């Protein structure tokens, strides 16, 4: 990633709409996707169509995966002037962090919730059973003794 804090205007971004020099704006981030054109799973033509423009809507309309969203940072060369770029870029980075955490968490959380969730159910059964056993045991021993 180049210096991602450089601020570009949309008209500056619009200078880069060639196959050899292709920039797009997504979520307030200015991305240089020249190198990505060849490997983009959706093909280079869709990227070239939005070259030099804000493609946030197009990017979202496709329903790109979290992995795809996480890739945005890799191609970021700056932020878009005006469009609360800094905040957006930071928000996206924060979202990615959350995504990473929640992605790594489930097995751990489920495991921990597993026995914790089972505990009240177990006690609900074990406590009355213990009380009943104590009561009948006590009664039985009393009978035997007398
Ligand atoms: C740097 C920006 C972009 C990145 C990193 C990116 C990344 C990806 C990735 C990883 C996929 C595979 C499917 C997935 O994981 O969601 C994908 C598919 C696709 N992308 Fe992008 N993409 C970018 C920009 C765009 C833009 C701007 C458009 C539309 C104008 C677009 C259109 C598509 C399409 C049509 C597919 C194929 C979806 C399918 O076959 O189901 N992408 N992209």
What does the secondary structure layout of this molecule look like, with pairings?
Blueprint: E1 7-8, H1 10-13, E2 17-18, E3 21-26, E4 29-32, H2 44-49, H3 56-61, H4 66-75, E5 76-80, H5 85-104, H6 106-145
Parallel strand pairs: 1-5
Antiparallel strand pairs: 2-3, 3-4, 4-5
Helix pairs in contact: 4-5
Write up what this structure looks like.
The longest helix is centred in the C-terminal third of the chain and has 40 residues, at 106-145. This protein has a domain at 7-86: Flavocytochrome B2, Chain A, domain 1. It contains 6 helices and 5 strands, in the order βαβββαααβαα. The termini are far apart. The mean pLDDT is 84. With 146 residues, the protein is an alpha+beta fold. The structure holds protoporphyrin IX containing FE. Protoporphyrin IX containing FE binds next to strand 3, helix 2, helix 3 and helix 4.
- Could you give the count of β-strands? 5
Helix content: 55-70%
CATH architecture classification of the domain at 7-86: Roll
CATH superfamily of the domain at 7-86: Cytochrome b5-like heme/steroid binding domain
Mean pLDDT: 84
Distance between the termini: 88 Å
Helices, by number, come to 6
* Overall geometry: rod-shaped
Q: In terms of structural class, how would the helical and strand content be classed? A: alpha+beta
Bin the strand percentage: 5-15%
Arrangement of strands in the largest sheet: 1-5-4-3-2
**Main sheet properties:** 5 strands, mixed
Ranges where pLDDT stays below 50 over 5 or more residues in a row are none
Keywords: Heme, Iron, Membrane, Metal-binding, Transmembrane
Protein name: Cytochrome b5 heme-binding domain-containing protein
Subcellular location: Membrane
GO molecular function: heme binding; metal ion binding
